[in-house]
């Protein structure tokens, strides 16, 4: 600066923004990142200006430390502890990302609440406020809060939270008119989707659908399971068999399962073009977003052609309500219908608890009971037809 060159005692101060005014004077502002403060009162290039800026920097640093270290005994402190706990760190990355959004939201909304003020009625009021956003959003936030406070509730020597505030607090029920999130696929729909993908020269998409339906793989596994995971093993009789051996993307555990014959048929009928079992049109590994878009385009076109089930959106356009995750659900129901044990379902579908197995078992039972009821209706109709035929024959003779 010209002024700096004219003054040997000039001090260059960082984070100072100079704004020239119409009258010829210059105002000084503190600027760091998105934070702005001023105009500053000290003259430019002076020790006084440096002292003024240093005071602002110290104040910002103190504020940052206060935000970074929530007060002990508050909900923000408990959430911060959970954020660094082994329970949180060992979650799947996708679950961590989802939970982190809830942690940040809770810290902003309720971080100053004292642990001593967290009661059952407070939890219920919070749950009811969340319910406006939808039952799933409310239940996910409630589970996060329960996870974060569990160590404090379980500690008999820590009485900041009296009793268990979550006792008898039920999750928000799914509304009766809410459509099923991941409908079960019918066999003809799976076959139509795989056939259409191959016909349209998207063998990698056909493989993705087969991996979901016949392997029970979730989307994250479909896009990452490598070609080398498919190996030749040996059964109890010493005969060779196809197996898939890989590290699961969610729980990071070794999975080793025999390949379903229907999956084998699709994989053998399509070329290997990438280092992953499923691949995009360019022969590269799928990204989650790209697979979702390709899947939706295929299924919506099949729905408009009447080859799979269809629904109608608000604009009157037909679309397919089937999802990639629904393929995994379909595999789970199939396992339950085959009387697979809970442990078997968990091993096949990479679940850590029996909760999902119970859901698949209930869905399978509803289908079996429904089919049984229809069989009874069919039997009664056949019996009535037989009686009517016998009556007609008797009257003719």
UniProtKB/TrEMBL annotation:
Keywords (A to Z) from UniProt: DNA recombination
SUPFAM superfamilies reported in the protein's UniProt record: DNA breaking-rejoining enzymes
GO biological process, one term: DNA recombination
GO MF annotation list: DNA binding
Highest taxon, organism lineage: Bacteria
Protein name from the UniProt record: Phage integrase
Source species: Asticcacaulis biprosthecium C19
């Amino acid at each position: 600066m010209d002024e700096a060159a004219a003054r040997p005692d000039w001090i260059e101060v960082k984070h100072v923004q100079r704004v020239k005014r119409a009258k010829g004077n210059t105002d000084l502002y503190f600027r760091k990142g998105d934070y702005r403060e001023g105009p500053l009162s000290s003259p430019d290039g002076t020790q006084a200006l440096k002292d003024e800026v240093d005071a602002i920097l110290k104040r910002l640093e103190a504020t940052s430390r206060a935000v970074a270290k929530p007060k002990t005994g508050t909900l923000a402190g408990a959430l911060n502890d959970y954020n660094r706990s082994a329970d949180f760190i060992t979650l799947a990355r996708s679950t961590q990302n989802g939970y982190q959004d809830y942690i940040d939201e809770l810290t902003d909304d309720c971080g100053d609440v004292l642990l001593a003020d967290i009661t059952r009625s407070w939890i219920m009021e919070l749950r009811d406020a969340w319910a406006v956003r939808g039952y799933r959003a409310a239940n996910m936030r409630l589970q996060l809060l329960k996870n974060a406070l569990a160590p404090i509730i379980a500690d008999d020597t820590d009485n900041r939270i009296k009793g268990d505030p979550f006792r008898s607090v039920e999750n928000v029920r799914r509304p009766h008119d809410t459509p099923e999130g991941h409908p079960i696929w019918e066999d003809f729909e799976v076959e139509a989707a795989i056939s259409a993908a191959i016909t349209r020269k998207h063998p990698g998409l056909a493989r993705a659908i087969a991996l979901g339906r016949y392997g029970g793989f979730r989307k994250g596994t479909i896009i990452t399971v490598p070609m080398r995971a498919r190996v030749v093993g040996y059964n109890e009789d010493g005969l060779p068999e196809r197996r898939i051996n890989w590290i699961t993307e969610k729980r990071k555990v070794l999975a080793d399962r025999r390949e379903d014959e229907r999956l084998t048929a699709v994989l053998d009928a399509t070329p290997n073009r990438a280092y992953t079992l499923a691949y995009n049109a360019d022969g590269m590994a799928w990204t989650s977003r790209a697979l979702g878009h390709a899947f939706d385009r295929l299924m919506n076109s099949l729905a408009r052609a009447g080859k799979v089930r269809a629904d109608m959106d608000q604009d009157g356009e037909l679309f397919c309500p089937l999802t990639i995750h629904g393929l995994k659900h379909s595999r789970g129901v199939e396992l339950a219908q085959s009387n697979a044990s809970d442990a078997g379902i968990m091993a096949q579908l990479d679940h850590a608890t029996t909760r999902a197995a119970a859901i698949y078992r209930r869905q399978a039972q509803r289908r079996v009971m429904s089919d049984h009821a229809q069989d009874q209706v069919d039997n009664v109709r056949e019996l009535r037809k037989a009686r009517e035929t016998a009556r007609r024959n008797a009257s003719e003779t």
